[in-house]
Amino acid sequence: MRPSGRELDEMRAVSIETNVTKHAEGSCMIKMGDTHVLCTATVENRVPPFIKGSGLGWVTAEYGMLPRSTTSRMRREATAGKQGGRTVEIQRLIGRSLRAGVDRVAMGERQITVDCDVIQADGGTRCASITGGWVALKLAVNKLIKAGDIVSDPLVSPVSAISCGIYAGQPVLDLDYPEDSEAGVDGNFIMLANGQMIEVQMSAEGSTYSRDQMNLLIDLAEKGVSELSAMQLAATA
């Protein structure tokens, strides 16, 4: 039995509220159970120096957790004078995951920055950030298309992410914090809507895993991504 009482292949309740901020070109609040992330997308008519003049667009991301997004207060990274290694790793993951679903030629020479701010954390913050980040990105692109700034949609597919793991010897979908903290195997799966994989992060947290178990987790991830992709498309229709 999972601590939440969910079935092995059951995700937490997911909601995506769009246009939650006034100024950002795209924004949403994604809630996956008790993990809540504010995602905003900002369009700028510039690109990093290494692709300037190439005609290619760029999508990048920043990630952060509010001090009381967790059970005890965390010090703001700004007061420490630098970002932690985990933060840097996650925001790079978000950026390269979102870029995997973008036709950068169709996007034109502009940059979209997706900011993911964790309001409340209960496991799976990077997965929620990627899933909500795509929604914010799509809403920003929709505005560019409506304004006539780009001709065709550069987003070739929704990009979403879900965690899976081995908890109490069983493969489970969408780990919350109690499961994540005790899972023998923990994995994050980032995919396109058609199931094509972008990135898989799997690690033994207390027990090793077999090829058969890995295949079971991939099957669960495909189910979760299919459900999330449908929600993303409904939110941005």
UniProtKB/TrEMBL annotation:
Pfam families: RNase_PH, RNase_PH_C. Its EC number is 2.7.7.56. Residues 10-140, 158-224 form the Exoribonuclease phosphorolytic domain. InterPro entries: ExoRNase_PH_dom1, ExoRNase_PH_dom2, ExoRNase_PH_dom2_sf, PNPase/RNase_PH_dom_sf, Ribosomal_Su5_D2-typ_SF, RNase_PH, RNase_PH_bac-type, RNase_PH_CS. Keywords: Nucleotidyltransferase, RNA-binding, rRNA processing, Transferase, tRNA processing, tRNA-binding. CDD domains: RNase_PH_bact. It comes from the Bacteria. It catalyses: tRNA(n+1) + phosphate = tRNA(n) + a ribonucleoside 5'-diphosphate. Phosphate binds at residues 86, 124-126. GO terms for biological process: rRNA 3'-end processing; rRNA catabolic process; tRNA processing. PROSITE patterns: RIBONUCLEASE_PH (PS01277). GO terms for molecular function: 3'-5'-RNA exonuclease activity; tRNA binding; tRNA nucleotidyltransferase activity. NCBIfam families: RNasePH. Homohexameric ring arranged as a trimer of dimers. Phosphorolytic 3'-5' exoribonuclease that plays an important role in tRNA 3'-end maturation. Removes nucleotide residues following the 3'-CCA terminus of tRNAs; can also add nucleotides to the ends of RNA molecules by using nucleoside diphosphates as substrates, but this may not be physiologically important. Probably plays a role in initiation of 16S rRNA degradation (leading to ribosome degradation) during starvation. HAMAP family: RNase_PH (MF_00564). Belongs to the RNase PH family. This is Ribonuclease PH. It comes from Planktotalea frisia.
